[in-house]
Specification:
Blueprint lengths: L3 H9 L3 H4 L7 H5 L1 H16 L4 H4 L7 H15 L5 H6 L4 H4 L7 H17 L5 H30 L14
The protein binds protoporphyrin IX containing FE (HEM).
The site of protoporphyrin IX containing FE has 22 residues, from α6, α8, α9 and α10.
């Protein structure tokens, strides 16, 4: 059976090595805290103003400022900076934290669309860092889609005949 990581590679088109090229350099040291704050602010401004209501509504229960902080603290921590996210929120456990949301292929593409635009717009990030980040984001997005699929299989699968309970005739 394919692991979630393997599914993520297949669906995203990003192999494992490219996805984790963020670990071959310290992007936090290179870019600094403010750059990550700027990126997440730009990204979530696009998300919260998305003309696609179905996507915007996925974020309806979160305050924009909180979503921004959660995201940049995770990015900082994952890309070589201090563990800001874990200090405040605990273990990232990304699949578990996305459990309440419908993370479909379509949602992943929309998320990536906004992140691509935010990266294109970022004048404080060099091209090499942008490529590493986007590959990581793409792979992670599809890792979450794979996790979402698993959730749907274990919760929403229709009862199968093989496991039906037969009541004894009275
Ligand atoms: C694939 C499409 C995705 C969807 C639909 C999605 C949706 C969401 C939503 C609705 C939230 C709640 C906002 C908040 O209160 O913080 C969230 C949080 C978060 N997401 Fe995603 N996300 C996606 C992809 C990603 C990716 C690719 C990453 C990482 C690279 C990521 C990292 C996070 C983090 C760190 C949080 C904060 C969790 C917390 O603090 O509880 N997400 N996401």
């Amino acid at each position: 059976m394919q692991t979630l990581q393997e599914k993520a590679s297949e669906w995203s088109g990003v192999d494992h090595e490219d996805a984790f090229a963020i670990d071959q350099t310290n992007l936090y040291q290179k870019l600094g805290l403010q750059t990550f704050i700027n990126l997440s602010t730009d990204f979530y401004t696009r998300v919260y103003e998305d003309e696609e209501e179905w996507f915007r509504s996925i974020f309806a229960d979160s305050k924009k400022e909180d979503a921004i902080q959660n995201q940049y603290e995770f990015f900082v921590q994952r890309m070589g900076g201090p563990p800001l996210f874990s200090q405040r929120r605990g273990h990232p456990a990304l699949i578990g934290r996305h459990r309440p949301f419908d993370v479909t292929h379509k949602a992943a593409e929309r998320w990536l669309h906004h992140m691509q635009q935010a990266l294109d717009n970022a004048t404080d990030i060099d091209q090499d860092s942008k490529t590493r980040m986007l590959n990581f984001f793409r792979h992670t997005a599809y890792f979450l889609v794979a996790g979402n699929d698993l959730k749907n299989q274990s919760q929403g699968a229709p009862p199968c005949k093989h496991a039906a309970i037969k009541t004894a005739p009275e």
